[in-house]
Amino acid sequence: MRIIVTAICLILACSGMVAQPRGGGSPPPAALQIPASLFEKAVACIKEHEGWHGNHLPYVGYGHKLLPGETFTPDMSEEQADSLLRADLMKLCRMCSRFGKDALLVATLSYNVGYYRLVGYGKIPKSRLIQKLEAGDRDIYNEYISFRCYKGKVVPSIERRRKKEFRLLYMP
């Protein structure tokens, strides 16, 4: 009898958890909360620095990494690539919405370095940038610029890109 009561309690508790919305009950901010002009600056910055990937599979367009089942080809039109970039960036903005006014900045960085490299997953630890933002500390310039290395070495062009992104997208 005790086992049956425990099982019923567990089922009720689990069904109650499933019914709760994620993120503390508040939906993520609408895409319209990011000023359109700022979003356009992010898109232009990504296009400038990513460049056209041409025949560099698994990347197509302006740096979209092909996912299993996707059939995009390197000869896609610029309009298709632009649309794909915007969709990817908007998806990342929704994923980063918990960072409030820093969502676009974090989304732009994660477009290049990968979302899970920032927020951590499994054996990948959470970045110092995310740790500071979660703690409410917005003094993140050094942490943001630290994503300028390739194979452990500072790459000047990546450093220039990070500084430009920060200058364009950080809202004090």
Q: What would you call the shape?
A: globular
Alpha-carbon distance between the termini?
A: 60 Å
Note poorly predicted spans: 1-29
Mean pLDDT: 84
Order of helices and strands: HHEEHHHHHEEH
Structural class: mainly alpha
Largest sheet: 2 strands, antiparallel
Keywords, separated by commas or semicolons:
8 helices, 172 residues, globular, two-stranded antiparallel ribbon
Describe the protein:
It is built from 8 helices and 4 strands; from the N terminus they run ααββαααααββα. The protein has a two-stranded antiparallel ribbon with strand order 1-2. A two-stranded antiparallel sheet has the order 3-4. By secondary structure, the protein is mostly helical. Helices cover 54% and strands 5% of the residues. β3 and β4 form a beta hairpin. The N terminus is likely disordered.
Question: Topology of this structure?
Answer:
Blueprint: H1 2-19, H2 36-50, E1 59-60, E2 64-65, H3 78-95, H4 103-113, H5 115-119, H6 128-134, H7 141-145, E3 149-150, E4 153-154, H8 156-169
Antiparallel strand pairs: 1-2, 3-4
Helix pairs in contact: 2-4, 2-8, 3-4, 4-8
Short description:
With 172 residues, the chain is mainly alpha-helical.
